[in-house]
Specification:
By secondary structure, the chain is of the alpha+beta class. Helices cover 46% and strands 18% of the residues. The termini are far apart.
């Protein structure tokens, strides 16, 4: 059996047999390396292929090249639950009619994210708070006095509003009695939550926020909030949106770089586009009307435009 014939049966199994490779000539010591998983024997690889093959919607070999016992294939495939098409290069080595090794090369970040499940909101919140805290430590006197994208607020007022809002959300999660009047945006912006050392003061706010939402059962419990009852996970998600979006406001006003965590952007996008909280707080509230943006723009740009902010990231 020449190398091409052995490899043809391998791809036939992916294309037409949902990864069933019992008839594919894999050496017992078949070794496979890839960005998601690696194997050192054919039995383990066949078991994986049967499991993964059930999720494959389409599989195509676009190009194939043979060099002695090495066959290189460029493949496209579609797989649940990922949208779109994955493209990879695969190297298969054949000896005496049996495939002895394989190497799959592609960007597997989207697949890893799906396999590991959505990141916990508390982890995203911690990373966002850390980014904002680092940002506050870089702002000089002129930066604090500069105008921010939040209408009529300086950078310092925006940072005070953020710190005050995060404290209020933490207090709700702590089951503290919070006067609804305290949620007034201007009141928080005009209250000095940051003192002489804004970075240290914000770090204390961030610590309290994280302690409130990582307490046992905090994300599952129900809380009275803004005339409604919501789970703690919703409060943590609102905190994440406040941290991420106002972090951008602060950085933009102070003319500092800001690179939000991709997973945090995705989580806030899902909240901003599905929750009524944004719609209810447009026009005079923290969110302006949506701005036009290209559908091909980065998700962070589309998120900020959805919240009424011009962004170039």
């Amino acid at each position: 059996m020449n190398p091409h014939t052995a490899v043809e049966s391998y791809y036939h199994a992916w294309q037409h047999r949902a990864g069933e490779m019992s008839d594919v000539p894999l050496a017992d010591s078949f070794s496979f390396t890839g960005p998601v998983a690696s194997f050192t024997d054919s039995a383990s690889y066949r078991a994986m292929a049967r499991q993964a093959g059930a999720a494959v919607r389409d599989f195509r070999v676009r190009h194939q090249f043979t060099d002695g016992d090495l066959v290189c294939s460029i493949i496209d495939w579609e797989m649940d639950p990922l949208p779109g098409t994955l493209t990879a290069a695969e190297l298969l080595r054949v000896h005496d009619g049996r495939i002895v090794s394989g190497e799959l090369i592609y960007d597997a970040e989207d697949l890893r994210r799906v396999m590991s499940g959505p990141p916990a909101v508390t982890g995203l919140l911690e990373r966002s708070h850390a980014l904002v805290g680092h940002l506050l430590g870089q702002i000089g006197e002129q930066g604090w006095a500069a105008a921010s994208p939040c209408e009529k607020w300086t950078v310092r007022q925006t940072a005070n509003h953020l710190a005050g809002g995060l404290l209020l959300l933490a207090r709700v999660a702590e089951r503290d009695q919070v006067d609804p009047a305290e949620f007034d945006s201007q009141r928080q912006a005009d209250t000095d939550h940051l003192g002489a050392d804004p970075a240290a003061a914000f770090a204390a706010v961030a610590d309290r926020s994280m302690a409130a939402f990582t307490a046992p059962g905090a994300l599952e419990r129900e809380y009275a909030f803004m005339g409604d009852t919501v789970p703690g996970a919703a409060l943590a998600s609102i905190s994440l949106m406040e941290s991420l979006v106002h972090g951008w406001d602060i950085a933009t006003g102070a003319h500092l770089p800001y690179r939000a965590d991709d997973d945090a952007v995705q989580a806030v996008w899902e909240l901003a586009t599905t929750s009524p909280i944004v719609t209810e707080h447009r026009s005079g509230g923290p969110f302006a009307d949506p701005l036009p943006v290209l559908p091909t723009a980065p998700l962070a740009v589309r998120l900020l435009a959805h919240l009424g902010r011009h962004a170039q990231l």
